[in-house]
Amino acid sequence: MSLVNLAHVCSHLNNATKARLGLTSIPNTQLHLKLCLALQNSGYISSVVRGGPTPPPQHTLLGVPSVNDEVEGVQSLTQSNVASRRLWLGLKYWQSDPVLGKMSMVSKPKRRVTIDVAGLREVIRGEKSGYVEGLRSPGESLYLSTDRGIMEARECVEKQVGGLVLCRVL
């Protein structure tokens, strides 16, 4: 797990929302995919599509099936094009404000922050636990990497698991 690349993704998404982009791409890794799917489940981004260096067709981003999907979707994955694979993210806006406000890293490459369930309960209540500040606003989320995948802090408390604190979304 490379936290350096995840920090680049966080700053890229911050810059993309400030620039009011509707579609952006990040490198395709398992960590990025799982985090983006967790962000999509929380409602911060609208779509996550795997693709190449060029954006996927509009109907793919919207989830509308097309007649030629089988013909367009057949693109073999080879050793030469694996580095050019991208995750295309559809960003959401509500009344011309970005839904994904600010994304910041909690764990750094030199200081990985782990937290247990008792500490997570404190953080959810708005109190500080170790290096992790409490969640202050209702729309704020904290994402953790656990042995069950990447989950939001409230979901981790429900399932009684702790883990590595990845990032905070305001």
UniProtKB/TrEMBL annotation:
Key words of the record: Mitochondrion, Ribonucleoprotein, Ribosomal protein
Gene Ontology cellular component annotations, sorted alphabetically: mitochondrion; ribonucleoprotein complex; ribosome
InterPro entries: Ribosomal_uS8 (IPR000630), Ribosomal_uS8_sf (IPR035987)
Listed transmembrane segments: none
Keyword Ribosomal protein among UniProt keywords: yes
Gene Ontology MF term list: structural constituent of ribosome
Predominant place of localization: mitochondrion
Coiled-coil region list: none
Name of this chain's protein: Small ribosomal subunit protein uS8m
Originating species: Aspergillus bombycis
